[in-house]
Specification:
By secondary structure, this protein is mainly beta. Helix content is 8%, strand content 31%. It contains 1 helix and 7 strands; from the N terminus they run ββαβββββ. The chain has a 5-stranded mixed sheet with strand order 2-1-7-5-6, with helices on one face. The protein has a two-stranded antiparallel sheet with strand order 3-4. β5 and β6 (66-70) form a beta hairpin. The longest helix is centred in the N-terminal third of the chain and has 7 residues, at 26-32. The chain is globular.
Length: 91
């Protein structure tokens, strides 16, 4: 059996560089980055991934300028720019 090599992806989260792996979802990278908020509800409450499979839509972030991307469904790639509402960027 052949071993898989872990590929490091340098990504940007709310303007800060972070090293993740290409096997890691954006939601997992946000957790490791210590950002447990992807957006705010209309009443101002913090939101983050709940279901982990894209059904709840709570993990929406802006990825490479595209709003409403599901952090639990997107995998980290080098150069990826991720912004959450916590950075004042809105999604």
């Amino acid at each position: 059996m052949r071993e898989q090599q872990t590929t490091i992806a340098k990504i940007w989260i709310n303007g800060s560089s972070f090293e993740a792996t290409t096997e890691m979802s954006v939601a997992a990278a946000l957790m490791r980055f210590d950002s447990m908020q992807t957006r705010q509800s209309v009443s101002g409450q913090a939101r983050f991934a709940v279901c982990g499979m894209g059904v709840c839509q709570e993990c929406r972030v802006r990825i490479n300028g595209q709003s409403h991307q599901l952090a639990c469904q997107a995998y980290c790639r080098s150069g990826m720019v991720i912004n959450t509402e916590t950075a004042g960027m809105g999604t």
